[in-house]
Amino acid sequence: MHVKNPKTAAQTLQRVLVKVVALAYAMMKAICNHSFEGVTNGFQCMNKFKKVNLRYLRERAATLQSLGQSLSQFYQFMPLQGEKWSPFAAIISMGHLPEVSVGIDAEGGHKAYVNTPSRTYADFVNSWGLQRGDQVTFVTVQKRQGKYEVNYARLILNPRNADGSGAPMTTEIVNSEGEFPCSNWKNQLNFSTFEFDTDHFNFVLGRGGDVVAAGIIVSRKDKSGGWFRSNCQLVLNEAGLGSDLCSLAEAVDKSYATYDIDMESEFYLNNAGSEGTGSTGDVTPSGGGGGVTPGQPSYSTTATINGVSQSISGGTVTATAPVISVAVSGNNLGEVVFTAKVDGTGDAINPTSHDANGASFTGLNVAAGHRLMVYRGGNLWFTITAHAPNDESGDME
After folding, report:
1. Own/partner pairs, 345-349, CB within 8 angstroms, 24+ separation
2. Is the pTM of this model over 0.85?
3. What are the beta bridge partners of residue 360?
4. How far is it, in rounded angstroms, from Cα 151 to Cα 72?
5. Sheet holding 200-205, edge to edge
6. pLDDT in tens, 192-211
C-alpha cells in the first residue's frame, strides 16, 4: 500500500523536524549515542536525543505561532541531503553534573568562549564546580569553506595536580607548543585556538573556521565505574549561518537518507583516560545497591497552592477559593506529562511552565465548591478542594 504524501501544515512541520533531528544525531553520533546519563548506550540514547530535541523544536514553533510571528525564519534549514546540514540549538547531553555555560563571540572570528575569573587552573575548576579527574569535552560546529563541520576536543582535569594552586591554564594545561601535556591518556587535543582573553577562554577546534554552535559536556566516573554527564544544549551564533539556509518548501522537498546506526565499541566522552580520581560519592547512574537512578523522575510530597506550601502526600488537600495557582516540584520531570481538570470533567489544563524541576499552573480560577484534580502521567495525583474564605473545613456535602 502506498501512503499519500502528506500536505497539511502539521504533517509538513513534523516531517521537517524529524529529518532535521535525525541528521543532527547522525552528525554528532560519536558523542550522542552515550551522552544521556542513566540511558543505555546506543539505540536508547539515540531515541532519547530525538525525543527531547523534537519536543524542543515543536515548542519553539508553538511559541512563535502563539506570538503571531512568521515561521519563515524557523524553517531556515540547509537542504537535507548529502553532507549538507544546518545546526540548531540541539540538546546533546543530559545529566546532573555542573553545567558549563558557553558563549560565541559574534565578532572577531566567531570564537567560542567560557567565562572564568582568571587564567588559573584552580579558578577554571572552581568556577564551574568541577573536580580534578573530570573529563571536559568541547564541542563546536564550525563553518569552513562553505560547509559545517562538527569538531570535538577532550581533556581530563589533571588528577595529579593536588590543589591546582595558582598555575596559569596556559602552562598547567597548555604547553609552549599549544599542546596538552597528557600524552599517556586518550585525549583528543585538536584545538586550533585556546587562549585567555580578559575574563574568559576562547577556543576554536580542528582546522579552524567560524564557530556557529558550541557546547561543553562534563563527564565523571564514579567508584563503581558508572558515568555521569552534565546538561549541554548547543548555543548558536545565528549570524554565522549566513545565507546558506533554505526555505521550508526546499527543505521538505529534498530527501535525506539517514545514516546507519550502529553500536560503538568505545565511547568518546569516557575515553580521556583511566586516571580519574573516582572520588565522587554519587551513585552510579544505572542504579543498584539501593541507590537512586539519576534521570528517573522523583516527586515532592508538597505542592505550592496560592503561594502556600501544603502536603499532598494523602492525595487530597483543601485551599481557600479561588485557587489561582498550583506548583509541583521534583527532579527529572521534563518528560512527565502534567495536566489538571476542574471537577475531573472540564477541559484539560496544561501547565503554564514546565521544566525538569517541576510544573506550574497559573491563571486559574477554581471557585468554592469545586475541585481541581491534578494528573501526573495520565493518572490522578492529588485533588485540591476549594472552599469559601470562612469555611475552614472544606466540606462540600
Report:
1. none
2. no
3. 327, 353
4. 29
5. 103-104, 112-115, 200-205, 191-197
6. 787 778 888 888 887 778 88
